[in-house]
Amino acid sequence: MLMRGGTSKGAYFLAGDLPAEPAPRDALLLRIMGSPDPRQIDGLGGAHPLTSKVAVVSVSADPAADVDYLFLQVGVEKPEVSVRQNCGNLLAGVGPFAVERGLVVPGGDRTSVRIRMLNTGDLAVAEFPTPDGSVDYSGSVELSAEISGVPGSAAPVVIEFPQGDSPLLPTGQVCDVVAGTEVTCVNNGMPVVLIPASALEITGYESPEDLEADLVLAERLREIRLEAGRLMGLGDVEDTTVPKLSLLAPPRDGGAVTTRTFIPVRCHTSIGVLGAASVAAGLLLPGGVGEGIGELPKHGDRLRIEHPTGFLDIETSVDAGSGEAAPAVRRTAVVRTARKIFEGTVFPRSADTAPTSAHGR
Fold first, then answer.
1. Which of 72, 78, 96, 172 has its CA 20 to 30 A from that of 57?
2. Are 158 and 333 in contact (CB under 8 A)?
3. How crowded is residue 355: how many other Cβ atoms within 10 Å of its Cβ?
4. Which residues of 270-305 are buried (b: 16+ CB within 10 A; e: fewer)?
């Protein structure tokens, strides 16, 4: 089933329909998505990391969850499939997909699905409308929601993230100096390095295309990411997609902060859900690099994270910690939308004709 989840698009599979072992599974998915090829012309991929994603869903053996969700980031120009990150956008489609495939019985007008995210071990609860026992993607006028980066409106999928076991500050510090630049390393569902845009001698309001074309900036970001990855306990991140790098600038449109996020080389045209959750949590930390850049709301815990194509609202509350108690997230929730685009049979490219690189065709 091809679905839009939030501001991403991906292929959703039942785990039982794919090889159980990672190597043959990944080889098959590369052929299904059309990688490696910058256009992914021979597969389902959309020639961008945001549209070259896969969700694998199964009934969970964990009594705390209904289904398991494995996210796979499929490389576009490289024959790579990564499990080292999560995706909060495709997460929005997991609950509806589980109902569509009979893994979860709808629970009245609205259904809640408890989801174990296998990439991190964390849990999420997605609630969405299921009138008459089937998923409503469009939503009524009263229920419809709009999210930046997606045209029109659709039924809201409310996703709540219970507090996980991972420390909010992977380095144990609110601020670190990495590659000569002061940063805040934070993990509220996604490892993210927060960097003041001004520290990189840019405004933070540039377009993603202009930022990607800045080779000097690219090399500096690479240095920061490699050093931060080791500092955050992620090891050598040269060939991985985490941590993300999020550049911070003062808000322009009434939000809490403006962001430009790298994933890790391409600049995100919006921002990932879990990446935004980490940005929001980082902004609430006294002494973090976001202090003096972000404008926090005077009432409530909803932070509007501005990005190149609009904004994403995150509800987050953080306990700043005291004494030996480390800072911790109390609550994180977000509203997303999802839509089923098509379902059917995909015919993968023959293994005999699969290139080993983007230059092999």
1. 78
2. yes
3. 15
4. bbbbbbbbbbbbbbbbeebbbbebbeeeeeebebbb
The Cα–Cα gap between 258 and 267 comes to 14
Residue 310, in any domain of the structure: yes
Spatial separation of the C-alpha atoms in residues 356 and 359, rounded to whole Å: 8
Distance CA 276, CA 282 (A): 10
Please tell me the predicted confidence (pLDDT) of residue 35: 97
Residues spanned by the domain of 349 = 2-163+338-353
Residues in the chain where the model's pLDDT stays below 50: 360-361
Dihedral sign computed on CA atoms, order 226, 228, 232, 233:
positive
CATH code, 88: 3.10.310.10
pLDDT, tens digit, 9 for 90 and up, residues 96-137 = 999 999 999 998 899 999 999 999 898 999 999 999 899 999
Q: Are residues 121 and 11 in the same domain?
A: yes
Residue 19: CB atoms within 10 A of its CB come to: 13
**Is the peptide bond prior to 264 cis by the omega test (within 30 degrees of 0)?**
yes
Residue keyed to tokens 């489609």: 93
- Single-letter amino acid, residue 175: C
Q: Assign 222 to helix, strand or coil.
A: helix
Q: Are residues 32 and 150 in the same domain?
A: yes
- In Å, what is the CA distance from 119 to each residue of 34, 187, 317, 361? 23, 14, 24, 32
| 360 is a domain residue | no
pLDDT for the residue 354: 62
Domain shared by 7 and 141, yes or no: yes
How many helices (H) and strands (E) are present in the chain, helices listed first? 5, 16
62 Rama sector, left if φ>0, alpha if ψ -120 to 50, beta otherwise: beta
Vertex 179 angle, CA 177 and 185, to 5°: 50
Q: What does the alpha-carbon distance between residue 248 and residue 182 come to, in Å, rounded to a whole number?
A: 12
